[in-house]
Design goal:
With 390 residues, the protein is of the alpha+beta class. The protein folds into 3 domains: 157 residues, no CATH class; 62 residues, no CATH class; 137 residues, no CATH class. 48% of the residues lie in helices and 12% in strands. It has 15 helices and 11 strands. The strands form 4 sheets. Strands 5-4-3-6-7 form a 5-stranded mixed β-sheet. The chain has a two-stranded antiparallel ribbon with strand order 1-2. The longest helix is centred in the first third of the chain and has 24 residues. The C terminus is likely disordered. Bound molecules: zinc ion (2 copies). The site of one zinc ion has 6 residues, from α13, β8 and α15. One zinc ion binds next to α13, β8 and α15.
Length: 390
């Protein structure tokens, strides 16, 4: 061990990273993963984990500071390689990578449980020819063909461990979890269908577009009004704010989502723009229900707007008008009215761009112009904001 540790330290200290071949380095690491797997398997056979009364997998995960699934991979590889000498040699020499070897070992473990055998040479050849993902697909199909009942049990086991966490942390939400193949495919299909670039000016990364696609899908679900009622009301996003805060006056209290999560006044304005605002707190914290009719768009106005627009009004955006929200060119809290000349339909992404992204919307006669932040001549008004930046 000491010899290896010294060699690694010398290499890390002295190697010129510009001349390190990633493929050779990765082969070496994979080869050592094989050695680690064999060592963990030996330790399990010596029952070392029983000293700590942990399962072998938990013990290995703790010892190697890795996840349970990573530890399970290595224990499986360590066990299976004992009876697959050609694969062990292929992993040592770099002919087959660790992830490919683990795929083959899991398959052998599974089909071995019903007494079936694997053609080692054929699978080494598969590992050479296929990407890791394709190899996993072939292995899954093989397993399904050899042992459909076992495959079904695995699917059911996966179903049992399905989980989703949604936690609020540091001013953002974090989503984490494990979805079943079928569940994940449904989520991915919806997100993919809503995460294409919108218009020529769409600067978002694919990650950001996927986020926006997911959020847009949720807003569409909220807007459809088909979700089950909770405490007698349809699920909706509540914001608590004040008229002063919506006008972005200095010293106005912050707007909040349910649970006291602070949002910017610009976000509150956007949520209020299409009638999502639930109630307004007056100064002095007196709750005043402003009522939807006072600013929300009436069904007939919405119909008139849909008759004039087939898509989101932002140039180049093809989001159908049914998936948009009415935007008040002059925001209602600043006196903008809910009449048809003051309304345009905007999709989730462009509505946000206009409220929070610094774009301006200006009506010039019958035309509506969208001005990007870097081409604006700011005209200051009483509340210190650009004139039409509703
Ligand atoms: Zn708006
Ligand atoms: Zn749009």
């Amino acid at each position: 061990m000491e010899v290896l540790e010294d060699a690694v330290r010398v290499f890390q200290r002295e190697a010129d990273l510009d001349f390190v071949d990633p493929r050779r380095l990765s082969t070496l690491i994979d080869s050592l993963q094989g050695t680690l797997s064999a060592a963990l398997h030996r330790a399990r056979k010596r029952n070392e984990h029983q000293v700590t009364s942990q399962s072998a997998c938990s013990w290995a995960a703790r010892q190697c500071q890795m996840s349970l699934s990573a530890a399970a991979d290595r224990l499986c590889v360590g066990e299976q390689l004992e009876s697959m000498p050609r694969l062990a040699e292929a992993l040592r020499s770099g002919e087959v990578g660790f992830q490919a070897a683990a795929t083959i070992c899991h398959l052998r473990d599974r089909v071995g449980a019903i007494g079936a055998r694997l053609d080692e040479e054929m699978w080494i050849d598969n590992a050479r020819r296929f990407s890791v993902k394709d190899l996993r697909d072939v292995a899954a199909r093989t397993w399904h063909a050899v042992d459909p009942a076992g495959f079904d049990r695995k699917v059911e086991n996966d179903h049992e461990v399905r989980q989703l966490f949604i936690s609020e942390t540091g001013g953002m939400y974090r989503i984490d979890g494990w979805l079943t193949l079928e569940g994940g495919a449904a989520v991915k299909t919806v997100v993919d269908s809503l995460s294409k670039p919108l218009g020529a000016d769409d600067q978002r990364t694919s990650k950001q577009r996927r986020h926006d696609g997911l959020v847009e899908a949720m807003h569409l679900a909220l807007g459809a009004g088909t979700l089950p009622r909770r405490n007698g009301v349809r699920p909706h996003i509540s914001i608590t704010t004040t008229v002063e805060s919506l006008k972005r006056e200095l010293g106005a209290p912050a707007s909040e989502l349910e649970g006291g999560l602070t949002i910017s006044s610009k976000t509150a304005q956007r949520l209020a723009c299409d009638g999502a605002l639930h109630r307004v707190l007056k100064a002095g914290s007196v709750v005043v229900d402003v009522g939807r009719v006072s600013r929300a768009v009436s069904p007939s106005q919405w119909r008139a707007l849909k008759a004039r627009h087939r898509t989101c009004a932002f140039p180049g955006c093809d989001r159908p008008v049914n998936m948009t929200n009415p935007h008040h060119i002059e925001f209602w809290a600043r006196g903008g009215r809910s009449d048809i000349r003051n309304l345009i339909p905007l999709c989730y992404f462009h509505h946000r761009l206009v409220h929070e992204g610094g774009w301006q919307v200006i009506r010039a006669g019958d035309r509506v112009e969208f001005i990007p932040p870097d081409r604006q001549i700011t005209t200051r008004r009483r509340w210190g904001e650009s004139r039409w930046a509703a």
